[in-house]
Amino acid sequence: MFVSSRQETANGPRREFELGDEEFRFLASFMSKETGIVLSDHKRDMVCGRLVKRLRALGLREFSQYCDMLRGPQGHAEVENLVNAITTNITNFFREPHHFDHLRDQVLAPRLNERPRRPRVRIWSAGCSTGEEPYSIAMTMADALKGCDGWDALVLATDIDTNVLRRGEAGLYPLAALDHIPESYRKRFVRRAHEADKVQMADEIRRLIRFRRLNLHENWPMKGLFDAIFCRNVAIYFDKPTQRQLFNRYADRLFMGGILYLGHAESLIGVSDRFEAVDKTSYRRIK
């Protein structure tokens, strides 16, 4: 079986690249080993279409040549480009808004009421894509902590795709993105950009976020614990054993009682017993 990328010619479509069974199996195995991402057979068309530009950029004529490159000494350096091409990044501000209500009322408000001697809050956006999620977290945090001096507050935003991290760090978004941001937040935290039809996240919000590249399948350099972790629409790309390992590692990185937020199509049922459900796709660490 082959999946082809075609170009139109005067005589009709011609075959440009073919992704055969052997090459697809290798790419799927390579991605699984390097990132934990599972590429099932029904994603073959997607893989073929997204890697065509990369093959052209490298001057390669066949997928077999690309696979040979990944096997060779250049393979490690190419992983970042491969991952950037394959991964999907679809998001918007305040997606699944009930999570941000829960963050405000059940995570941040109780922390404020504790009045700790060293006030500190840490939230992790894992798989942050182009930044809409961590900026939504930061706006919620800035609003909740308004008037509370001395708080050490930070959002860690990580993704495996360096392209989306650069976009998130820039904090520039199209005007249409404002439709998903509550009006009170727009007035306080969003500015008109110098570029036409763009908006810029305010400096006070950008200062709350640290964008970093992180492969969830590898070692995590963070040492401290988090009050909450957002990992939404990420685990769906992993098989069950990888999910079990990932959620166990998340539990280790959360304070006892800390919250893990998942995507609407994800669940911990049959995957982890270290959390209890406390709201829609919101889970509290219990062990």
TrEMBL record:
Catalytic activity: L-glutamyl-[protein] + S-adenosyl-L-methionine = [protein]-L-glutamate 5-O-methyl ester + S-adenosyl-L-homocysteine
Top-level division of the source organism's lineage: Bacteria
Molecular-function annotations in GO: protein-glutamate O-methyltransferase activity
An individual GO BP term: methylation
Bilayer-crossing regions: none
Record's keyword terms, sorted: Methyltransferase, S-adenosyl-L-methionine, Transferase
CheR-type methyltransferase domain segment(s): 12-287
EC number: 2.1.1.80
Keyword Methyltransferase: yes
Family matches, as InterPro entries: Bact_Chemotaxis_MeTrfase, Chemotaxis_MeTrfase_CheR, CheR_C, CheR_MeTrfase, CheR_N, CheR_N_sf, SAM-dependent_MTases_sf
Residues annotated for S-adenosyl-L-methionine binding in this entry: N89, T91, R95, E133, D159, N215, L216, R232, N233
PROSITE patterns in the record: CHER
Task performed by this protein: Methylation of the membrane-bound methyl-accepting chemotaxis proteins (MCP) to form gamma-glutamyl methyl ester residues in MCP.
Name of the molecule in the record: Chemotaxis protein methyltransferase
The organism of origin for this protein: Magnetospirillum gryphiswaldense
Upper taxonomic lineage: Bacteria, Pseudomonadati, Pseudomonadota, Alphaproteobacteria, Rhodospirillales
